[in-house]
Amino acid sequence: KRQGIRFDDQVAVVTGAGQGLGRLYALELAKRGAKVVVNDLGGARDGSGQGSSTPADKVVEEIKALGGEAVASYDSVSTPEGGEAIIDKAVEAFGRVDILINNAGILRDKSLTKMEASEWDAVMSVHLDGAYNVTRPAYIKMRENGYGRIIVTTSAAGLYGNFGQTNYSAAKMALVGFMNSLKLEGEKNGIKINAIAPIAMTRLTEDILPPDLSEKLKPEFVTPLVMFLCSEQCPVTGSIYNAGMGYYNRAAIVTGPGVVLGDGQTIPTAEEIARNSKNIASLEGAAECYSITAALGDMLNAVGKPVLKTPPKSGDQTVSRVF
Ligand code: NAI
Q: 200 in ligand 1 pocket by Cβ < 6 Å?
């Protein structure tokens, strides 16, 4: 019945959708048939200020002008009440939630010694607490329908590191941990959760990314991958994707094959560790573990006590290591 990637009869919530990447996600979802909750508190780049309903309202108007359906939500993702209110809005207006894109974000860049606790907390509360606050009520609704697509927005700063962003990097990488566990909880309920690490010129990055690349760094390049991950066709869960400038790839946490030291009875010395450090650190033949059970299974296999069975594989990205 459906041609291509469509979201007819589906309801999508996009946080921080008043501008930048979130606005583009909201517009494209609506163009493809979704009813959209455009959430944005309309604050400054560092999350300060009174907030404003204007950015969210403008995107709702844009969607309506295209013949789509949308409502605005001005609540902050940074409190549990805000998260509940955002999802309540979706249910009141459209009756359900199928898609949640956790996209709202702020920056408070400082090198660690200059970073005040308030700057740490503000970034954690929007990115990390925000994902919990909105995803939890959304997940409850998705579970009722046995279907859901959730996106968390991580960052190359978290995956790889960036000077002056310990708060932001920690929050962004924490979202990968959030995804890793929630993907397992979502399996039985038809709920898939994936992470996107965008690179795009927006208000957030206009003085961070090289200005001469601004034409190349169109945020529009990120949208198609996010649409795919939000779609019924999405075959993966628990995956991380980089997207920018038309370049798309997957990042993953892999585990090296390692070595077993000793007989499992005697504790190896620090000197033995030093002597074997190259082999311990080797990533040759490294692979992903789909869950802690898989990782523990690999460990037990390595020490010669295959007690745990590798759990059933789900998602085509699963690679299990065989010793
Ligand atoms: P942006 O600044 O253009 O948009 C972020 C939006 O989130 C703003 O409209 C802001 O008002 C809203 N927002 C902030 N705090 C909020 C809160 N508590 N509740 C509701 N809305 C809130 O930034 P951009 O670039 O579009 O960023 C979107 C996401 O992508 C963020 O999570 C960001 O960390 C992430 N990201 C962006 C990158 C880039 O290159 N632009 C790189 C890596 C990650």
A: yes
User: Cα of 152 to ligand 1 centre, how many Å?
Assistant: 12
Residues 189 and 278 in one domain: no
State ipTM: 0.99
Q: What is the Cα–Cα distance from 59 to 71, expressed in whole angstroms?
A: 9
Q: If you measure from the C-alpha of residue 203 to the centroid of ligand 1, how many angstroms do you get, rounded to a whole number?
A: 8
Give the span between the Cα atoms of 277 and 292, in whole angstroms. Answer: 24
| Listed residues 199, 219, 251: the one ending a domain | 251
Which residues form the domain of 261? Answer: 253-323
Ligand 1 mutation pick, 13, 14, 19, 21, max ligand atoms within 8 A of CB: 21
132 is catalytic: no
How many structural domains compose the chain?
Answer: 2
**Ligand 1 and 73: CB distance under 6 A:** no
Instruction: Name the residue of 78, 202, 217, 240 whose CB sits within 8 Å of the most ligand 1 atoms, as the mutation to test its pocket.
Output: 202
The domain that contains 226 carries what CATH number? 3.40.50.720
pLDDT by residue (tens digit) across 52-110? 999 999 999 999 999 999 999 999 999 999 999 999 999 999 999 999 999 999 999 99
Q: Is 79 in the pocket of ligand 1 (CB under 6 A)?
A: no
**Domain final position from 209, 224, 251:** 251
Q: Which residues of 26-57 are buried (b: 16+ CB within 10 A; e: fewer)?
A: bbbbbebbbbbbbbbbbbebebeeebeeebbb
Whether residue 310 is contained in a domain is answered as yes
231 Cβ contact partners less than 8 Å away, ≥ 6 residues apart = 5, 7, 149
Same-domain pairing of 45 and 79 = yes
Report yes or no on 282 lying in a domain: yes
Pairing of β 287-288 and β 254-255: antiparallel
- Asked whether 83 lines ligand 1 (CB < 6 A), one says no
The pLDDT tens digits of the residues spanning 263-308 come to 888 999 999 999 999 999 999 999 999 999 999 998 988 888 655 5
Do 231 and 264 lie in one domain? The reply is no
Each residue's pLDDT tens digit, 205-250? 998 888 889 889 999 999 999 999 999 999 999 999 999 999 999 9
Residues 299 and 198 in one domain: no
